[in-house]
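User: Hi! I'm a student and our assignment asks us to look at how structure tokens line up with a sequence. Could you show me two examples?

Assistant: Happy to help. In each example below, the sequence comes first and the structure tokens follow. Example one:
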Amino acid sequence: MIDTLLESLTGKKGNDAAVAAGGQDPLAAALSSLLEKNGGLQGLMSKFSKGGLGEVFTSWVGMGENQSVKSSQIEDVLGSDQVKGLAAQLGVDPSKASGFLADYLPKIVDKLTPSGQIDSAENQQQQGLDDLLPSLLSSLTGGKQQA
């Protein structure tokens, strides 16, 4: 399921042209939008805390092992409207979007917080996300370069 989502995101012929023309990769745009809508990592942490998953989110930020999260928990915390919006942005089914977030949001948060704490500078989070995505996509697609 996740491979199909990644193929649909990384395999679209227009993606490379859009990025080369100064546009943003659809996955980067969707993740940036998710962070922005939730008040950055700090706001996302607050949402997870209010949803009873503060300890889980804290594990992603901290230096230890990341605790897992279920796609249903992602939907509960973010709300189905946000998941549907993300899915629409990516052109996939909402269940695939929530599954993707459940699998990769812990890794993304972990990579955006290398010192084990949330940096309050929003622009640094965006830069970190921009820096992270090429290597994340490469690792998710097994290092295969998309034509």
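Example two works the same way, sequence first and then tokens:
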Amino acid sequence: MYRRRFLKRAGGAGVAVGTSLSLAGCLADQYDVGMTATQFRPEEITVEVGDRVVWENTSVRGHTVTAYEDAIPDGAEYFASGGFESEAAAREAWSDFGGRLENGDRFSHTFSVPGRYDYVCIPHETGGMVGAVIVEE
């Protein structure tokens, strides 16, 4: 990735004019999970109860973030890009591209119940685009 090279050069120039800290802060990633063409990165993330996870589509392909309804803890709130209340609703809506995140779009969810949350990108599920959020107390 060229980001580090850019930051190094820009940071070096910024030191001379006293702006390196503000420049680096503007360019910092503002998401927890990125979406490449066929993968969530990282595929698994560990957070604490009450933390909000932000996904960003960092590719040119459309993606979804869709929880597997039977693979989230009991009592946990269901989540899916598009705001669907169930996995079935999210899958049905995908026929009209419901829940689709385009390049640069973000989706976030706050996790209030500890446990493992498995999720998928519906259009790339057969290619193995799945991820997990581990929520600890």
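Here is something you could point out in your write-up. The chain has a mean pLDDT of 85.
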